[in-house]
Amino acid sequence: MKPSVVLHGYEAVREALIDLGEEFAGRGSFSVPEKVNKGLGILFSNGNRSIEDRVQEEARCLVEELRKTSGAPCEPTFILGCAPCNMICSIIFQRCFDYKDQNFLNLMEKLNENLRLLSSPWIQVCNTFPFIIDYLPGIHKKILKNFDYVKSYVLERVKEHQESLDINNPRDFIDCFLIKMEQEKHNQQSEFTTESLIATVTDMFGAGTETTSTTLRYGLLLLLKHTEEEIDRVIGRQRSPCMQDRSHMPYTDAVVHEIQRYIDLIPNNLPHAVTRDIKFRDYFLPKGTTIITSLTSVLHYDKEFPNPEIFDPGHFLDESGNFKKSDYFMPFSTGKRMCAGEGLAHMELFLFLTTILQNFNLKPLVDPKDIDTTPVASGFGHVPPFYQLCFIPV
Predict the structure, then answer these.
(1) Is 242 annotated as a binding residue?
(2) Signal peptide location in the record (predicted)?
(3) Could you tell me if 38 and 44 are in contact, meaning their C-beta atoms sit under 8 angstroms apart?
């Protein structure tokens, strides 16, 4: 309903998001999610233990839960969702949940369903013609209802934190935010408000849980077709994997990168907007113009990644088998508004996947050559097909 510009290919995307990062740092309109947070939060706003220890601890919890399947066929969506969701919970609430906790499972169910629904054709229509959101029935109402559930859950936790807050001893993200709210309570322009806190935490759940768990789920599906041998040689079976191992495991590192490149999780990025009138590649873009950056055109560029439609860890290995970085690897976007959780996501994907593969052989229920990795939904995100597998202890 308003002018938008699509940037296709690495050179155009890089020039906008990196070389002119400030000018392209505005957030474009994305109607259905905006309805949730009203422009607040971090995704759609314009404005003593290491974390590795926690990821390793959560990886061990994940392995113990997978052991309980006793090698029987299982559908891994919720088990794989528990680990990244617990990581976000530990940052926000300083607490973790048992994988069978019903409140925890309800929360993940809403987040999982929303990624699937946001990728449906109807939501693409709603985002294109936002006036229909308020007037027509449809699955967009279900998305808003799911987000309301998440927000009400967050509000309960915020109230608990307010009752037990010690400003000299912040426990987690919510405490830090509440302390900042107290410090700025006389500032009429302060962005530190309860409404903003709830929106920000809801964003952290949406962006930090389902993206990582979907990548893990897609990754295991791909690994059912492709074996992984390096873990035994470098780590063995006696200790947990750590991030230092990554530099000695170029093939595993390449596999994790190739999973993200191949699945192309968020194909058209989150929309950007130009923050001022600007001339870009001989085109005049007025301030506020929506910019859609095709990450697919970068991640599947055949000059950088030969046969990009094929899953091939060799895309990230040189002739000697060493890991090869690529400027074209931007599943987290790039520039001023790239994913704030990229570092945590890299750590989670590497440690969760290597810990699973260290402890289990993955057994498909069908012949590997018959496994279909085509996404069941392609819109806002690429959603992997439902599948079952067996985790066979080694």
Answers:
(1) no
(2) none
(3) no
Q: What tokens were used for 129?
A: 């013609």
288: alpha, beta or left? (left if phi > 0; alpha if psi -120 to 50)? left
Q: Tell me what pLDDT residue 230 has.
A: 80
Contacts of 319 (CB under 8 A, 6+ apart): none
Tokens 């740092």, located at residue: 25
Low-confidence ranges of the chain (pLDDT < 50): 41-45, 47
Give residue 50's pLDDT: 74
Going by C-beta distance under 8 Å and a sequence separation of 6 or more, which residues neighbour residue 137?
A: none
**Side chain identity at residue 160, one-letter code:** E
